[in-house]
Amino acid sequence: MGFFDTLMTPFTWAVSFILSLFHTALTFLGLDPESGWNWTLSIILLVIVIRVILIPLFVRQIKSQRGMQIIQPEVQKLQAKYKGKKDPVSRQAMAQEQQALFKKHKVNPFMTCLPLLAQMPVFFALFWMLNRMRQEQYQQDGYGALSAGEVQSFDGSELLGVGMSDIFLPSFQSDPTEWHVVIMTSIMIVAMVLTQFFTQKQLMSKNMSEAALQGQFAQTQKMMLYMLPLVFVIGGVNFPVGVLIYWTATNFWTMGQQWWVIRNNPTPGSLAEKELNLRRAAKGLPPINEKPESTQEDKPKPTGKHRGQQAQPSKKKRKKK
């Protein structure tokens, strides 16, 4: 076993265990154990399990993104303060003030991409598995928690005539009869790109305040809008079908999850918040993030022994005639 196989062992075992569990359950429910649909649904269920586990990280990501948007006016002032100053002392001072600003508002820029990074071990584990399953050693001994029979079933299964280990680029270059593989993988790559683009686009167009739409934070978001889909195009042509199924399902989950958050719990000052307040107004509900008007109970109460009672005029004694 090589170094990378040893490094990936905990992740491949966990992924293969979940796949084996769902494959067994779906087989018990009546699906053909050799069918590609059985393994496709097992991969989709794997995505659901992983994304449910990552919900706490997603919540922290949302809080961090909103915190970054809230402090953008202060970040822009800091950038203006050190504009044109490129000496090491100024750069260090700016970095220290920026870190102090993040600490004051309890914002961690790293958290904005943590859910994506947390999925990488699962992604690479599945990719590593599919690249190993065709080897005779694993066909005979099994791989991770998958038995030899399950490895052979996974490797031999097909979805609409396309195998789980088939790849766009080798099929396109070597075998002209493999056009069904090219078409299937192309559709999935396009789905990956479009879902990623739409997810980032709805974040920028609806869930960012006016202050956050300017400055370095906005430039970073625009870069992600075009760079991430490009990464999926470049990598997708080398991904096996099983990995494409996993990542496409992940993108659909992310898109739906973010749509729900933007619609029901938008960033203050964003277009999504205005749209939510319009929907609430149509239902006769008060706007969100609105401070309630002060009521009689909120007014300060008079102090003293006779609080709440009106002062009675004192009686003067009459002079006797």
UniProtKB/TrEMBL annotation:
It is found in: Cell membrane; Membrane. CDD domains: 5TM_YidC_Alb3 (cd20070). Keywords: Cell membrane, Chaperone, Membrane, Protein transport, Transmembrane, Transmembrane helix, Transport. It is a multi-pass membrane protein. Residues 290-301 have a biased composition (Basic and acidic residues). Residues 302-321 have a biased composition (Basic residues). The keyword Secreted does not apply. The chain crosses the membrane at residues 12-31, 37-59, 110-130, 179-199, 225-247. Residues 281-321 are annotated as: Disordered. Residues 39-262 form the Membrane insertase YidC/Oxa/ALB C-terminal domain. Pfam families: 60KD_IMP (PF02096). Required for the insertion and/or proper folding and/or complex formation of integral membrane proteins into the membrane. Involved in integration of membrane proteins that insert both dependently and independently of the Sec translocase complex, as well as at least some lipoproteins. Aids folding of multispanning membrane proteins. Belongs to the OXA1/ALB3/YidC family. Type 1 subfamily. Interacts with the Sec translocase complex via SecD. Specifically interacts with transmembrane segments of nascent integral membrane proteins during membrane integration. NCBIfam families: PRK01315.1, yidC_oxa1_cterm. This is Membrane protein insertase YidC. It comes from Nesterenkonia aethiopica. The gene is yidC.
